[in-house]
Each structure stands twice: as structure tokens, then as C-alpha cells.
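Troubleshooting entry. The earlier prediction with C2G gave an output that would not parse, so I re-checked the input for stray whitespace and re-submitted. Clean input:
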Amino acid sequence: MPTRVITFGTFDVFHVGHVNILTRAHDLGDHLTVGISTDELNFSKKGRYPIYRQEHRLEIVRSLDCVSEVFYEHSLDLKREYLLEHRADILVMGDDWKGRFDEFGDICEVVYLPRTADISTTDIIQAIREAEL
Ligand code: C2G
């Protein structure tokens, strides 16, 4: 049976930290599904909309060779349903989420991978703002 891996994220202003987590997630199995946080989910979590709209974020992630399937993540509260629906064997997240998804250990393996150092969407947005001054 192929091993099915799943991960979730916004992937706004796509950068090398995103590439790294997706390629490492892919390398843990045979099939990688990625849940893309919707614009509304982001607004409810972070109080702002992403720079790239959800259709573009989804298309960028879908275009990667390491990604088999994408879908929209509409709510954090539906995580268990998403894991079951996509028959996930392994849930992968960056270690900024460490411990947050341990409750799903009853239906899949939960793996937290180290984040890529020194890069984030927030820092990129900040650098662009400062460059415009
Ligand atoms: N990431 C990383 N290294 C970075 C930046 C991000 O490994 N330098 C990882 C994060 O840890 C996460 C993934 O890339 O696993 C996506 O990050 P975000 O787009 O910031 O996702 P987030 O808004 O945290 O949404 O249900 C969970 C949410 O959808 C996660």
C-alpha cells in the first residue's frame, strides 16, 4: 500500500522554506496531499488576508512535482475530517506547530519537521515594505 502523507499551510508569498517542507514531506511517503488555508481561514486566524489569493496559492503548490493533490482547508476544526477523507498515514507540519496536532496520533503518525531558518513570509513582506521607503 502506498504511504499517504498530508500537510497544511497558507504558502503565501511562496519561498524556499515552503519548498523544503514540501519536499521533505514528500520524501516520507509515496503520495503528498496539501491542504491550502483559505483566505477566510487566514483572516480569522491572523486578522489579515494573505498577499496572494487562495486560487494562486493553490495553483503554485499544485504545480510542484513533489505534490500529488491539493484541496482548500476551510477550518482548523475540520482537521480530523480532512485526515480521514484523504486517508492520511502521516501528518507533517513544521515545528512551529509542535504538539498542536498530537491529538491525531490515534489515526495517523504525526511528524514535526524543523523549519527552514531565516526565512518567512512575514520577513519578506517587511523587507518589501522597508525597500519602498
Ligand atoms: N515553514 C517552514 N520553514 C519556514 C516557513 C514555513 O518549514 N521558514 C513551514 C511551516 O512550518 C508550515 C508550512 O511551511 O508547516 C506552511 O507554513 P505557513 O504557510 O506559514 O502555514 P500556516 O499559516 O502556519 O498554516 O492547519 C495549519 C495551517 O494551515 C498552517
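This one parsed fine. The radius of gyration is 15 Å.
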